[in-house]
Amino acid sequence: MNYDTFVDQVAQRAGTSSSRAVELIRATLETLAERLTGGEVLDLAVQLPAPLRLPLRPTPDTEAAQRFGAAEFVARVALRAGIEERAARDAARAVFITLREAVTGGEFDELVVQLPRDYRDMVEPALAPGATLRRAT
C-alpha cells in the first residue's frame, strides 16, 4: 500500500482530513513503537511506505517494549495528537485496520500477540472479516 492510500484510508475511517490523519498516524505509530520490541518494530516498518517508517524507528529507549495497557496507549496517542481520549481510541482503531491491510505475511498477527487482552477493542476490528474498505469500481 502506498503512503497516500494509507493516509486516505485512515482519514476516511477516522472521519477526518488527510492532514489530520497524518498527525493521528504519527501519534499512533510512535506509541506503538514504544509498546513493541525493537525487532517487531523493524519488521513492521520495512513493510510500510518510507514516510511511515520514521515514527517507527527504534531508539535505545524503545529497543525493549514498554509494558503499558490500552488505557495508557490511548492516553499517549491523545497527548501526542492533541485530542480527547475517545477520539484517540477511534484513531488508533483506524490506524490498526489500515496497518492490517498494508502489511503481509502475518506481520500484523505477530504485532497483535505482543499486546495484552485489554487492546482488543482497538485491535479486533482490524481482525474481523470485512474490516477492509471496499473500493468503488
Structure description:
There is one protein chain. With 137 residues, the chain is an all-alpha fold. Helix 6 packs parallel to helix 8. The chain is globular. The two termini are 18 Å apart.
Show the helix and strand layout.
Layout: H1 3-14, H2 18-35, H3 38-45, H4 50-53, H5 70-81, H6 85-102, H7 107-112, H8 120-127
Helix pairs in contact: 1-2, 1-6, 2-5, 2-6, 5-6, 6-8
Number of beta-strand segments: 0
Output the CATH class name. Mainly Alpha
Strand content: under 5%
**Main beta sheet strand tally, sense and closure:** none
Structural class: mainly alpha
- What's the Cα radius of gyration? 14 Å
Distinct helical segment count:
8
Provide the CATH architecture: Orthogonal Bundle
Gap between N and C termini: 18 Å
Low-confidence stretches: 131-137
From N to C, what is the helix and strand string? HHHHHHHH
- At CATH level 3, the topology is Globin-like
Work out the count of structural domains: 1
Helix percentage range: 55-70%
- Given the C-alpha coordinates, what overall shape results? globular
Nearest-integer average pLDDT:
87
- Which homologous superfamily in CATH is the superfamily? Uncharacterized conserved protein DUF2267
